[in-house]
Structure formats: structure tokens, C-alpha cells
Amino acid sequence: MFGYAMKNNLKILAIETSCDETAAAVIGEENSRPVILSNIISSQIDLHAKTGGVVPEVASRAHMEAIVLVVSMALIQSVGDEFLISNQFPINSQFDNETVKQSNNEEYQKAIKILRDEIDYIAVTAGPGLIGSLLIGFNAAKSIAYALDKQIIPINHIEGHIYSALASRVNSWWPVAGSQLSGPQTTNHKPQATGNWKFPTLALTVSGGHTSLTLMKDHGVYEQIGATLDDAVGEAYDKVARLLNLGYPGGPAISKLAEQFRNKFPIINYQLLIKSQLSIPKNKYSNVAIKQCSNKEMPLDISFPRPIMNDDTFNFSFSGLKTAVLVWVKKYLVENKLDSVDQIQMGVKEEVAAAFEEAIKDVLATKTMRAVKRFKPKAVVFAGGVSANQYLRSQIELGIKNYELGIGFLTPSSGMFGDNAAMIGLAAYHHIKRGDTRKWNEIEIDSNLEL
Ligand code: KG4
Ligand code: ZN
Fold first, then answer.
1. pTM of the model as a whole
2. CA separation, residue 210 to residues 162, 291, 379, 401, 449 (Å)
3. What's the gap in Å between 277 CA and the centre of ligand 2?
4. Which of 39, 155, 207 gets mutated to test ligand 1 (max ligand atoms within 8 A of its CB)?
5. DSSP 3-state assignment of 444?
6. Is the pLDDT confidence value at 301 over 90?
7. CA 382 – CA 233 distance, rounded (Å)
8. Are 1 and 435 in contact, with CB atoms under 8 Å apart?
9. Contact 289, 273 (CB under 8 A)
10. For residue 161, which atom of ligand 1 is closest to its CA?
């Protein structure tokens, strides 16, 4: 179970295919710290947007088409070169058989050489996730480890998300969404992972498939203190977006509408209001005071439930919230004699989105603060696809800083909120440092893997 002798400046090829992103990355080491040398993501979002959600069989087939190209790109970019066809694709585009056919065989040969000569370890997501998706990356990683006699490190996807915050607070060369794929601009400007992570760390991991609070006592030492009893936060966003016909994935669409509502009607946190002793007129809108309202457009005063927010556990439940939105929308359609959600005015959809996001924010912030008070962590990590939400990030951070300024607040750098393989490689780096590596025939996959 424990690995070969460790060498300095090791290199790890990491692979992640647990849901709808085919991802590969190479992690290197400089000054005894991990650095991200490349991070390639081929997203299937366009494919799943057609069906309004991930269809597992479609996802695994798409992983199969993309995996070799994605791994090859990560290898080639890790040495500072460009895979020639990279320039033709927007970041996060989907690589299919046609893309693969366009690429040139010499480049694959070069990738194989890097894999054989420079990569020391293979890291791969072993669960949790969609089994058909996991199998593609897992089998690719296992085959490489077998054929090239390299040690392998199976990583829990949630552990990966937690480690994505390790790459925060660094200058990164990630291209911003919408730009072209590109590798490191200069070799001396790589994102450097921070080495001074303080324990215990409390991690709130929120994505399309998971919502959990984990107490991390040291690298590799986890205690899950709470999890969702039903839907994950991202899943609730996606379902509410589908209900309002806003497309897939729902998180970005809902958060954009909610933001538009807050720009018109700034929502003021009562506690801050009381602290600042400002007399701001309170209107009928539940739980908020509204600074300025035009007379023409008044909010409808929508308020959704905050399920199990005030129990004394660290668990979550979001399916009742999603149902409350459904019931509200149905009632609104009947009362306003509308036939479909497409006839609902944008201003009303914005308010539904904002009221939904307020409920999510209150539950996440309340549960996190309860855990902060109980476990007194030195740092709080907020990670997973939903942590891309700027409002949730700022509000959770505000709660923590208001309580105690000294607690660190870590979130992933942009480009690493959602699923990626760099986070899997960063987690693997610390397993390697503990000597926890395996042979290809000692690893197992588990779609319900627990931390
Ligand atoms: O971590 P991730 O990429 O994949 C899973 O492991 O599930 O998370 C994807 C989830 C989706 O449900 C998506 O709607 C949500 O993250 N998401 C957001 C935002 N951006 C993505 N949720 C809320 N606000 C956002 N800005
Ligand atoms: Zn994820």
C-alpha cells in the first residue's frame, strides 16, 4: 500500500471525470510546494443544456470521446508547450470525436513521452460521482499506471474540492471564461499553492451533487459533521432554474437574476442594520429592509422557508425549499391567469431568484457559523461549484469576519470553483507526502465514497 521512495520535484498527472467535466492536470513541485503546471477542462455543459440536466449515459460517452485529448493537452501544456489545436477552442469547450480526429499524431507521441519520462504519479477521482462517468477516468488512470508501472492515488472528489482552496490567493495564469485556452504565459509565474494552511479547518463544500460540512484536523484527517439529507444546494439551484425555464446549469442563471433584484432593491442585513443604528425605512418585504424603492415597482414580499436552519445539527435539507418555490410559482400562474412560466415578468422571476438565494444564504451561513462557534476552526474553506456565487461567498465571509477577524476564509481562485483535475492533484500531493500511494491493482472505485 505504501509507495516507492519519494523523489524531489515530483510530478503528478491528475484525472477527474466524476460528473460532466472531463479534466486533467499536471501538478509539479517547487521549493517543496505543489504548483499547478496545467489544468485542462472539457465541459459537457452544452450537451446537457439540451436535456436540461446531466444524462448519465450521455456523460460517460462524452468523457470517453474527450479523455485522451484532454490528458494529452494537460501533459503538453505542463512543459510550457501548446497543443496545436488548442487555439481553435474556447475555454471549457467540449472535445468530441471530431476534435480528436483533427489533432495531430505527433502531438500524441510527444504527450506519451512526457507521460513516460516525466510523470511520477497518477491521481484520479475514485468517487463519489456518477459511476459511468467515474469509470472512464478511473480506467484511463489505472491503465496508465499498469502500463508504465507508476503508483496511483485514488482521491475523494470532496477532498479535491477542499484542496481547490489551496490554490487560492495566488496569481494565476488561468485564462478567464470566454477567452481562448492557453498554457502558462511564463514559466516563472505559476500558481503556487499556499503552504501555511492552518488546522483545524472547517470546510463547507457545496456543489451539484454534494453539500457538506467537514472538520479537517490535518491533511487527510476528516470528520464529516453535517451533510444534506436530500437535495444538494447546486441541485436546488438547477431545479429552480428548470422550473423558471432559465436553462442549465441553473446556478449562474439564478444568481444573475438575484443580483439584478438586489441592485434594484438592496437587501440589508438586519443585524448590520441594528449595529449601524441607521434608520432605514422597513417595507413589508420579509426579513429585509429596503433602502430605496421606486413607487412604480414594489417587490411582492416573497419569502421562502429555511428548512432545518434552527435545529442544532449541522445537516441541511433543500428539497422543501425547492417545493416551496414550485408551489409559489404555480399559485402565481393561477392567480395571474398565466399559462406558462415564460409569461411571468422578468422582475418577478428576479424576485423569486433573490428570495430563493436569501434562503440558501441564511441556511448556509447559519449552519457554518454554528460550526465555527462549536469547533473554533482557524480557517474556513468554502468550495465546490456553488462557491462560484459571489454573493454567497461575500455573505458567508462577512458572518465569519464579524464573529472573529482572525479566522481565515479560503475559496478557490477563479477557474477552480467547479470540477477540475488540479484540485485532485493537489489533494494527491499531500497523500504522496504521507507515503499513501498504491499500485494499479490496489485501488477501488465507489460512486458513494465517503470522506
Ligand atoms: O462542483 P461542480 O462543478 O460539480 C459537481 O460536483 O456537482 O458544481 C456544479 C454546480 C451546479 O449545480 C451549478 O448550478 C452550481 O454548481 N453553480 C452555482 C453557480 N455556478 C455554478 N450555483 C450557484 N451560483 C453560482 N454562481
Ligand atoms: Zn464537484
1. 0.87
2. 12, 36, 21, 25, 12
3. 41
4. 207
5. coil
6. no
7. 13
8. no
9. yes
10. 1
